[in-house]
Design a protein that fits this description.
The model has no long low-confidence stretch (mean pLDDT 88). The longest helix is centred in the middle third of the chain and has 17 residues. Helices cover 55% and strands 0% of the residues. It has a domain of 30 residues. The relative contact order is 0.05. The chain starts with 12 loop residues before the first helix and ends with a helix. It is flat, with a radius of gyration of 18 Å. It is mainly α.
Length: 71
């Protein structure tokens, strides 16, 4: 296992998620390459969502349902 560049052990899970989101948001889209296969899959998923219209449920509700054993 490699040694991390930064020690995140002092951060709460919520703080780590926030940091990951900030790092993701800092990326420039032009700096990322997307294969035609991935682009095609994203278009397919976007079309399926548009056709379905169901955005799902908030993550907290989904997690509560999973943790309670319901489905």
């Amino acid at each position: 296992m490699s040694v991390p560049i930064f020690d995140f052990s002092h951060l709460t899970p919520e703080e780590r998620i926030e940091l990951a989101e900030q790092l993701w948001d800092s990326l420039e889209p032009s700096g990322m390459s997307l294969s035609e296969e991935n682009a095609s899959e994203l278009r397919r998923r976007r079309s399926a969502l548009a056709a379905d219209g169901n955005l799902g449920q908030p993550w907290r509700e989904a997690l509560d349902e999973i943790e309670s054993g319901g489905a």
